[in-house]
Design brief:
Elements: E1 5-9, H1 15-24, E2 28-32, H2 36-43, H3 54-64, E3 67-70, E4 78-81, H4 96-105, E5 114-117, H5 125-136, E6 152-155, H6 165-171, E7 174-178, H7 181-191, E8 199-203, H8 204-235, H9 239-246, H10 269-276, H11 282-309, E9 315-319, H12 334-345, E10 350-354, E11 371-373, H13 376-382, E12 385-388, E13 406-409
Parallel strand pairs: 1-2, 1-4, 2-3, 4-5, 5-6, 7-8, 9-10, 9-12, 10-11, 12-13
Antiparallel strand pairs: 6-7
Helix pairs in contact: 1-3, 4-5, 8-9, 8-10, 8-11, 10-11, 11-12
């Protein structure tokens, strides 16, 4: 049976692009979100965050009638759950958003629907989501036992890069893991509507773990570069020159260090593996600890620069708050963490946060009277210490104006 209507639960950085690309391929999509402002923006054809090309897809989907938004699930042939999966203070996975989505979906089901979990999740989460739904709807089943209508479940982790989501949704290979073989096959059929990459079928737990492994691999490699930057600093060596030379070896490809690791994926997913296998995931845990500690090291560098300056009420400019270049996503951002901690650690300093992709003051700045958003020119003119945290394209022109000034360059952009 074909799928002509889809409900996408969660209209964030993954859910809204997925809804828009489905609508662009002729599927009638209802995006579901608990935030009335997000629902209103989408129904006006607007995008509530920055992502290249997404605005055109959303506007076209709304104008064609293929894309609408609502606060609660409506009847559909399939549902895609794309809600956050953060972790708690002790790095335990928080599945409350998925559970809430499951409980919201349960009343809308009639039997025969496909429910896909796209949220990055610990192994076994798709099965737990199915259990939450079927506990609320004992008249439905996973296997048709006792003649009860079947609900099909699958996990399909997103594998896209912010800033390239609309391209990579189409071109990247996808992993689809079903709780049953038929669930996987039905999910594959849905993704084939827009996905030009290879669609690889497996079971749900393997699909869940594959996404975690992909990001843990990247995290370990970033941790090597970040640890190398600490070693090089202690030895008085330019780490970027060191890496450039080492990478001339035909089998070496060291990544670039930075102020830490951010975003909802790499900064979070490895902890799900550590939680699932704490005794075995020793290297993954260590990499997380190295990357989580890097912002504190950067903070100390800034404090030292201010001490060298000798100013009583210094002005410090931080360039970039997002977790990666050229986007407005602040989730788990080390740049945001560093800026906030500078303001807290140096209460007599004025901190000018320069972030060209953000117009609203981040909630993390609440209660900190000495930090505010500022433009690049104001920061260049007013600050005595300049801290480059994100290599936004707009900041490439700063190398000249910052020559000879007190600079903490965490990206090697001003060399």
């Amino acid at each position: 049976m074909g799928i002509s209507t889809v409900g996408v639960v969660g209209l964030g950085y993954i859910g809204l692009p997925t809804a828009a690309i489905l609508a662009a391929n002729g599927v009638a999509v209802t995006g579901i979100d608990v935030n009335p402002e997000t629902v209103g923006a989408v129904n006006r054809g607007e995008v509530p965050f920055v992502e290249p090309d997404l605005a055109g897809y959303v506007a076209e989907g709304v104008s064609s009638g293929k894309l609408t938004a609502a606060l609660a699930p409506e009847a559909a042939d399939a549902y895609i759950v794309a809600v956050p999966t953060p972790f708690t203070g002790d790095h335990k996975p928080d599945l409350s958003y998925i559970r809430s989505a499951a409980e919201a979906l349960a009343p809308a089901l009639r039997g025969g629907e496909l429910v896909i979990l796209e949220s990055t999740s610990p192994p076994g989460t798709t099965r737990r989501m199915a259990e939450w739904i079927l506990d609320a709807r004992p008249d439905l089943s996973l296997d048709g036992l006792d003649g009860r209508p079947v609900i099909y479940f699958a996990h399909c982790p997103e594998r896209v890069l912010p800033g390239r989501i609309m391209v990579e949704l189409v071109t990247n290979d996808r992993i689809v893991g079903g709780l049953t073989p038929e669930g996987a096959q039905r999910a594959r059929d849905l993704y084939q509507v827009f996905c030009q990459g290879e669609i690889l079928l497996t079971d749900a737990a393997t699909a869940e773990t594959a996404k975690l492994v992909e990001n843990s691999f990247r995290d370990v490699n970033i941790a090597f570069a970040n640890e190398l930057s600490l070693v090089a600093d202690k030895l008085g060596i330019d780490v970027w020159e060191l890496i450039r030379l080492a990478n001339h070896h035909p089998r070496v490809n060291i990544l670039q260090p930075g102020p830490g690791v951010g975003g909802h994926c790499i900064a979070v997913d490895p902890w799900f593996i550590v939680d699932a296998a704490p005794e075995e995931a020793r290297l993954i845990r260590t990499a997380r600890e190295v990357n989580d500690a890097k912002p504190r090291w950067v903070l100390h560098k800034v404090v030292d620069a201010v001490a060298d300056l000798g100013a009583t009420n210094p002005v410090i400019a931080t360039y970039g708050l997002a977790f990666k270049p050229n986007i407005d996503d602040l989730r788990e951002s080390p740049a945001l963490e560093i800026t906030t901690e500078i303001a807290r650690t140096l209460p007599h300093a004025t901190v000018l946060a320069v972030e060209p992709h953000v117009e609203t003051v981040p909630a993390e700045f609440a209660g900190l009277a000495n930090v505010r958003l500022a433009g690049t020119q104001e920061a260049l003119e007013a600050a005595q210490v300049h801290v480059l945290l994100v290599d936004h394209a707009q900041f490439r022109a700063l190398a000249g104006p910052l020559t000879g000034k007190h600079v903490v360059d965490t990206r090697g952009m001003l060399r």
